[in-house]
Amino acid sequence: MNARFFTRICLSAGLLAASALAFGQEDGPATLRFDAAQLQAAAEGGFPLQRDLLEGFATLSLSQPKVRIPVPGERVQLELDYDVELLTSRSAETGRFTVSSGLRYDPATRGLHLADPQLQDFQTLSSRGGLDAGTRGVVNALMQDYARDRPLYQLTEEELAQVPGQLTAQSLRVEDGQVVLRLGSPTGE
To answer: Are 39 and 154 in contact (CB under 8 A)?
Structure first.
């Protein structure tokens, strides 16, 4: 009785696996899609980011990420709050800015990283009139470090298990308000 039960389970599992493979491949390569909410949930774990300014006399903090995927568009947008705090714990500058960026896949982190992030739309909440060029440079350097070292979204083991071959630069697209990862054959087709 146990052998028959085990055989049925194995056959059922095999049929489910074959069905899943056929479903993912019937119209070409399998596709994984990620929306802004999925990227948002993952991005929240990577913040706040901090960087010392003026040899430690001030600190720049980036927090409260908000991910958007505009339609039409081929880039994601990451809105962030910024705060420049002096050594005296007094806030010198606060505001919000937007980063527009493509995405790239990094096999070392199994993650989707920002690619070519571009700072735009700085809004200051203080009366100073905005970030000076030096602070803007530090924000830009911090975002470049983030893009290089930290994924905006890290693929799960289940998602990676659906990849029949290696992911390439052509596998990843931002389209129709989603991040689309097309999974090709092991030869990269």
So the answer is: no
167-170, long-range: CB within 8 Å, 24+ apart, which pairs?
167/105, 167/107, 169/104, 169/105
Residue at 6 is within a domain: no
Residue 102 inside a domain? The answer is yes
Q: How many domains does the chain have?
A: 1
Average pLDDT over residues 44-65: 89
Classify residue 80: in a domain, yes or no: yes
CA atoms within 13 A on the CB side of 169: 3
Residues 6+ apart with CB under 8 A from 187: 165
Q: What is the pLDDT of residue 77?
A: 97
Structural domain span for residue 148: 36-154
Positive or negative, the CA dihedral 123, 124, 129, 133 is negative
- Look at residue 25 and give its three-state secondary structure: helix
State the CATH number of the domain containing residue 68.
3.15.10.40
